[in-house]
């Protein structure tokens, strides 16, 4: 695997999993609640993200698209593209902020939760200061540690129950899988589109997306198996993996908190850096002031869940619908002669 393919694989897998995947709450809501149907949804989600991701990035490489903004202009034209791009960028920034705040509230109580907001932001600033090289390496290391941690938890299981297909036999699992695809498809595009023009050929995209999708699939399926194995203990928890680790290992909860803070900060760095660089090139701005402004806005959004609890589902829905809008437009363009 060449360097460009490896970079795409790491960032694609990181964005597909999400910055807070180590907590397990997102997987619980979107997949584990639906039992075996949720497992089917996880498989289809992995396939869909890989196929859509490769198809869109291949088009970006062929046409010369270097950012999410240029993709909006290419797909929606000058009339609607700029407005939709601004709206989508706003929801991405807001989503990263509120999900950071929500994750901090889940991982710690009281004044400690504010600390859990600040630490990922500090990690993101340090990583962005050192550029793409640190972001790629940090994402690879955090993903490897996460994979090892889930592997160790999975090995501890003597039995993983497989729920009967009669349980949750409705269409909700399809809806939740589609919503997960829409949101994380958008995040995957944000961090990978700026990389495709530096690749020597489309083969690197295929290898990178294939490897990233495979890693995402393996971690997701292991996580699903773990959540099903501990279902009766964690089904009502907002931090299921933390609860499991506390049962298995001394100080397991704190270990997860440290790893989660690190991974969240690195993914924040990847998203903010990927959003800022095209703006700097397009408008001839200085990178550092722009990043500082974006981080201040992100910090304000991160504090929003502490005051307005419903801000998280509203903003997450907005980002999800922006991703679904891109998916629908892509499918529509594929149908045109």
TrEMBL record:
Superkingdom field: Bacteria
Transmembrane segment boundaries: 5-24, 30-52, 72-98, 110-127, 134-155, 175-196, 208-231, 251-275, 287-308, 314-332
Keyword tags: Membrane, Transmembrane, Transmembrane helix
Keyword Transmembrane set for record: yes
Record's protein name: Transporter
Species annotation: Brevibacillus choshinensis
Taxonomic placement: Bacteria, Bacillati, Bacillota, Bacilli, Bacillales
């Amino acid at each position: 695997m060449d360097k460009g393919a490896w970079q795409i694989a790491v960032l694609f897998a990181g964005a597909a999993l999400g910055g807070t995947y180590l907590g397990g709450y997102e997987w619980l809501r979107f997949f584990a609640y639906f039992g075996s149907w949720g497992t089917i949804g996880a498989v289809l989600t992995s396939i869909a993200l890989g196929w859509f991701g490769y198809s869109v990035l291949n088009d970006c490489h062929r046409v010369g698209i270097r950012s999410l903004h240029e993709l909006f202009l290419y797909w929606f034209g000058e009339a609607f593209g700029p407005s939709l791009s601004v709206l989508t960028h706003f929801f991405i920034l807001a989503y990263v902020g509120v999900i950071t705040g929500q994750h901090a509230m889940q991982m710690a109580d009281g004044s400690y939760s504010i600390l859990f907001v600040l630490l990922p932001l500090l990690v993101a600033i340090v990583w962005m200061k050192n550029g793409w090289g640190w972001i790629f390496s940090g994402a690879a290391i955090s993903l490897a540690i996460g994979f090892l941690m889930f592997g160790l938890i999975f090995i501890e299981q003597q039995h993983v129950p497989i729920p009967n297909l009669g349980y949750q036999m409705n269409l909700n699992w399809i809806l939740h899988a589609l919503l997960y695809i829409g949101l994380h498809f958008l995040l995957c595009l944000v961090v990978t589109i700026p990389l495709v023009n530096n690749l020597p050929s489309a083969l690197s995209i295929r290898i990178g997306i294939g490897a990233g999708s495979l890693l995402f699939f393996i971690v997701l399926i292991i996580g699903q198996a773990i959540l099903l194995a501990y279902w009766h203990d964690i089904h009502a928890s907002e931090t299921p993996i933390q609860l499991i680790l506390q049962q298995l290992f001394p100080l397991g909860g704190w270990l997860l908190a440290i790893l989660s803070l690190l991974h969240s900060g690195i993914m924040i760095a990847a998203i903010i850096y990927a959003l800022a660089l095209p703006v700097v090139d397009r408008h001839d701005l200085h990178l550092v002031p722009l990043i500082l402004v974006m981080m201040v806005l992100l910090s304000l959004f991160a504090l929003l869940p502490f005051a307005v609890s419903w801000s998280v589902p509203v903003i997450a829905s907005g980002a999800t619908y922006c991703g679904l809008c891109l998916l629908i437009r892509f499918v529509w363009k594929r149908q045109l002669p």
